[in-house]
């Protein structure tokens, strides 16, 4: 097994910012939804308490609190997503700038990678000529003769890519 060492010398600031924008926005949305569920459970426990007295007995207060809890269900996940996305972008810009500065001074992270399976080479096969059938492997039919080489200058590129070009 081959072991190769690689070093991360620089992280793209915009690449990290857009990634953490999505991660921060999604996690902020989930956090806002979680806070709303906690808030709703507290509201539900207060509304169903057997010892209601005071402000909850006033007319319209329970309805106003119900409307507020419903409105909070819309606002908390939205504000959480916006706040998470903004903090994700700001945090990623600061951290990638700090990492890039440290990598320039002391060197980047060193990674040791190991290949576990041999990498297969890509083989490009040329298609059959128009009107010519390609025999299936193992059918016993003789393979078609290769096309005659075309006459061209040495500096002219080939018509189609071949496997030798990618080695």
Describe this structure in words.
49% of the residues lie in helices and 7% in strands. It is mostly helical. Strands 1-2 form a two-stranded antiparallel sheet. The radius of gyration is 33 Å and the shape is elongated. 8% of the residues are buried. The mean pLDDT is 79.
Task: Provide mean pLDDT, rounded.
Answer: 79
The helicity comes to: 40-55%
> What's the alpha carbon Rg, rounded to whole Å?
33 Å
Largest sheet: 2 strands, antiparallel
End-to-end CA span: 21 Å
Count every beta strand, where a strand is a DSSP E run of 2 or more residues. Answer: 2
Number of helices: 2
Order of strands, widest sheet: 1-2
SSE class: mainly alpha
Query: H/E order of the elements?
Result: EHHE
Summary?
Helix content is 49%, strand content 7%. It has 167 residues and is mainly α. The mean pLDDT is 79.
Topology, element by element:
Elements: E1 3-8, H1 13-47, H2 61-106, E2 109-114
Antiparallel strand pairs: 1-2
């Amino acid at each position: 097994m081959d072991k190769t060492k690689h070093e991360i010398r620089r992280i793209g600031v915009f690449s990290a910012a857009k990634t953490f924008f999505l991660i921060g926005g999604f996690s902020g949305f989930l956090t806002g939804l979680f806070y709303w569920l906690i808030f709703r459970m507290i509201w539900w426990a207060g509304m169903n308490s057997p010892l209601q007295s005071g402000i909850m007995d006033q007319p319209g207060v329970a309805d106003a609190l119900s409307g507020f809890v419903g409105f909070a269900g819309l606002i908390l996940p939205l504000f959480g997503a916006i706040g998470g996305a903004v903090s994700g972008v700001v945090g990623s810009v600061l951290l990638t700038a700090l990492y890039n500065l440290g990598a320039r001074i002391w060197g980047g992270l060193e990674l040791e990678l190991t290949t576990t399976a041999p990498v297969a080479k890509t083989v490009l096969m040329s298609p059959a000529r128009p009107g010519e059938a390609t025999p299936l492997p193992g059918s016993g039919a003789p393979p078609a003769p290769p096309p005659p080489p075309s006459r061209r200058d040495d500096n002219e590129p080939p018509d189609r890519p071949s496997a030798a070009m990618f080695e």
